[in-house]
Design brief:
Low-confidence stretches: 6-15
Order of helices and strands: HEHEHHEHEHEHEEHEHHHHHH
EC number: 1.1.1.35
InterPro entries: 3-OHacyl-CoA_DH_CS, 3-OHacyl-CoA_DH_NAD-bd, 3HC_DH_C, 6-PGluconate_DH-like_C_sf, 6PGD_dom2, NAD(P)-bd_dom_sf
Pfam families: 3HCDH, 3HCDH_N
Radius of gyration: 23 Å
Strand order of the largest sheet: 3-2-1-4-5-6-7-8
Distance between the termini: 56 Å
Largest sheet: 8 strands, mixed
Domain 3-hydroxyacyl-CoA dehydrogenase NAD binding: 21-197
Structural class: alpha/beta
Family: Belongs to the 3-hydroxyacyl-CoA dehydrogenase family.
Length: 331
């Protein structure tokens, strides 16, 4: 842009700069979201009705950013911290924001009241996203005039370390809103995952809840102590799941891939489910062939079956790097 004037260069910089984001709710998730967006270059305004929470934001922010720096995950905390400002008035916080990330208490009446206010205050093209862990947006935004720009964006906790973000639109959410939100999050270093149905708990907490329910049953029935259940997960399942998910794990645990795993292990897994009262997963004592085929197709797109041995070695190398990183919390 050699011949451009200073004013023209300024306009280009302004247009290409990441747009403002508002975070409403200054608890731990709100501060964590502020880090995600500010680290990606967005100016971030944080609001909370509790003045004490607002007063605590910068100290918590500085502490977390310094931890990221100490672990080699952030070069310089200062520019990131400088992009985050606390704002006492909601209207000022959301003024000009292209995305509003709600992080208030998991209460339907509270969210309903807040989203009605956000819908009134925000620009018509601003996305209104809830960090709800369990509640679909239909439960608190269905009656809003601007309901088409509302959805759930549920993060792992904390999102600056666990980059998965579930995008959960309602039937009334505009596709364009989902696409814009996906692009915004991907640009901020997140791994957006679209959830296609408004089921309670979405994907993250349904998986987490399934494990937790079984963990409670094992303790209740005297099979194992709570400490030993935690050990099995932290030193076994969790360590492996840190590098690959459950379907990829099954694929790499059995020579012949996930189809062979379903044949060999599927009936036992279904019996375990039936012993806990689950009745709707199996057909004639095994998972449906069509369902296994759908999952296998997805897995083999990422992990081609003809390269199975190489993928096993890559998995093991990743676990070695994780093991070498240091002791686990509470080990």
């Amino acid at each position: 842009m050699a011949g451009a004037s200073a004013q023209e260069r300024s306009r280009v910089t302004e247009v290409s700069s990441p747009p403002p984001v508002a975070v409403v709710g200054a608890g731990s998730i709100g501060v964590a979201w502020a880090i995600v967006f500010a680290r990606a270059g967005h100016p971030v305004r944080v609001h909370d009705v509790d003045g004490a929470r607002l007063d605590a934001v910068h100290a918590e922010l500085d502490e977390r950013l310094e931890q990221l720096r100490l672990h080699g995950l952030l070069d310089d905390p200062a520019p990131v911290a400088a992009r985050v400002v606390v704002v006492a008035e909601l209207a000022d916080a959301v003024d000009g924001a292209v995305h509003v990330q709600e992080c208030v208490v998991e209460s339907e009446p509270v969210k309903r009241e807040l989203f009605a206010e956000l819908d009134r205050l925000c620009a018509d093209d601003a996305v209104l996203a809830s960090s709800s862990s369990m509640m679909p947006v239909s439960r608190f935004a269905a009656d809003l005039p601007g309901r088409a720009r509302c959805l759930v964006v549920h993060p792992g906790n904390p999102p600056y370390l666990l980059p998965v973000a579930e995008l959960v639109p309602a039937p009334f959410t505009a596709d364009e809103v989902v696409e814009r939100t996906h692009a915004l999050l991907a640009g901020a270093g997140m791994r957006p995952v679209r959830v296609h149905q408004e089921v309670e708990g979405f994907v993250y907490n349904r998986l987490q809840g399934a494990l937790l329910r079984e963990a409670y049953r094992l303790v209740r029935d005297g099979v194992a102590s709570a400490a030993d259940v935690d050990t099995v997960v932290s030193h076994g399942l969790g360590r492996r799941w840190a590098v690959i998910g459950p379907f990829a794990t099954a694929d790499l645990n059995t020579r012949g891939g996930i189809e062979r795993h379903a044949q060999v292990m599927g009936p036992a897994y279904l019996r375990m489910g039936e012993s806990a009262g689950e009745r709707d997963q199996g057909v004639d004592g095994t998972w449906p062939v069509e369902l296994v085929g759908e999952v296998a197709t997805s897995v083999h797109e990422r992990l081609p079956l003809e390269q199975w041995s190489e993928h096993v070695l890559r998995r093991d190398e990743a676990i070695m790097r994780l093991t070498a990183a240091g002791p686990e919390l509470g080990a």
